[in-house]
Amino acid sequence: MGHSHTHGIQPGTAAGKHRKRLFIVVAITLSVVVIQVIGAALSGSLALLADAGHMLSDAAGVSIALLASWIATRPASDRSTYGYQRAEVLAALANALVLIVIAVVIFIEAVRRFGSEPEVETGIMLAAAVIGAAANLVSLLVLRGGQKESLNVRGAYLEVLGDLLGSIAVIIAAVIIATTGYTQADTWASILIALMILPRAWSLLKDVVNVLLEATPKDVDLDMVREHILSVEGVTDVHDIHIWTITSGVPVFSAHVVVGNEAFDAGGADRILDRLCECLGSHFDTEHCTFQLEPQAHARHEREQHA
């Protein structure tokens, strides 16, 4: 006997709720990219160009997230029973991979600059970097409210945070060059930007891989879930527990629950199912629950069929 608490996946995803925030950030980021590219061309700063390239990748990543959040609202079908909500996770995967590529390209170009004495116009470099830092700070404030709810919003938040740190690195490099004439500060700032990108990309990539592998969400204690199920009156055992995530904010749960013969025969299945769904929904914020109830006699057969 199976039961689903909501009889369907929630229609809205976490990123979908914050689509307006993502639109605002894309507009701000693209504006700054134009300013920084022009500034890099006029000043000769690799660090400023690296920061512009990073911000351009961020804008592309957030745009992908916006497109994915729209695709995720398409209804489920016989061929795609969960709908297209995994599109958001795939977009986050693309973001992580693009960040890694950008970091490697910046690092290689910076290494090539060692040993040379590039001409850098610090006034233009500094002005463009300050504008970038201010814009990134505004974007962070826009995204802060949604970054704990969605992988894509979190990815965008982390990217903008990296942009802010990159802009600060460019500002420091410009000041050093202006005051000491040490032009290699621009190269070191470029390397620093590349090194700041990699840990954020790796963190996002790990979260995405966990979702794609249908791993237990990191904030869920499986032993505690088992204890709560066993605490329901009439339940004697539970096995084949599975908890995974379709996309950010959409956890899914299933389990085989063994019920005492007396409770099962007395028609108490509906009461037990309601108690189980209420327990999972209130304690673990998992509304889409599917339970297979088994009388003890059938449970012995189940153990022969399942590891």
Q: What attributes does this structure have?
A:
307 residues, alpha+beta, Alpha-lytic protease prodomain-like, GMP Synthetase, Chain A, domain 3, 2 domains, four-stranded mixed sheet, 11 helices, 4 strands, 66% helix, elongated, disordered N terminus
Can you count the helices? 11
Question: What's the SSE pattern?
Answer: EHHHHHHHHEEHHEH
CATH topology of the largest domain: Alpha-lytic protease prodomain-like
Radius of gyration: 26 Å
The CATH level-2 architecture of the largest domain is identified as Up-down Bundle
Low-confidence stretches: 2-12
Could you give the distance between the termini?
Answer: 20 Å
The computed structural class is alpha+beta
- Number of domains in the coordinates? 2
Mean pLDDT score: 77
Globally, the shape reads elongated
Strand order of the largest sheet: 1-4-3-2
Query: Main sheet?
Result: 4 strands, mixed
* Share of β-strand residues: 5-15%
The CATH class of the largest domain is Mainly Alpha
